[in-house]
Amino acid sequence: MEVAFISRFDNRKPKQPDDLVNERVRFKEVLVIDQNGDQLGVKSSREALDIAYDANLDLVCVAPNAKPPVCRIMNFGKYRFEQQKKAREMKKNSKVVTLKETQLSVTIDTHDKNVKLKRTLKWLEEGNKVKVAIRFRGRQLAHVDLGKKVIDDFVEECAEVGQIEKPAKLEGRTLTAILAPKKKK
Length: 185
Description:
One of its GO terms (molecular function) is ribosome binding. By secondary structure, the protein is an alpha/beta fold.
């Protein structure tokens, strides 16, 4: 008696559009588009595969959910390489913008404010967004206007390098504003 071992973990990937190539296209009828972009009409998948093989190309299903499914005759290896090349290029050109935070207080002294300003300007020049926050403690919450003045002065000093993306707003006990770097010409 032979016992088969069935794994709980199935390592097979779900069906991807890459999987629907040549013999894996198992639809009864498909709309065929040739390598020049001309429609050849609705044909059986076997007939479409023969046309693709005659042209020394692949039959690729590009729209499996359409009625009838759309298949294109193309060089699949070249197509997949171009897609990967575009993805690499987009990834290389994309820049991740992070949100840094600067904590101020209502009673901040001039020197402390200048140190935080210098750091904030550096972050903005690097292309990061900066969240400027003032946390009110205890009775300081009665003087939100003083905190707003501190943030407005801070934002005004950052005006050369950054612009205000979200103006100062009180959220609970914290007054926050968000600065974004200015676009470079």
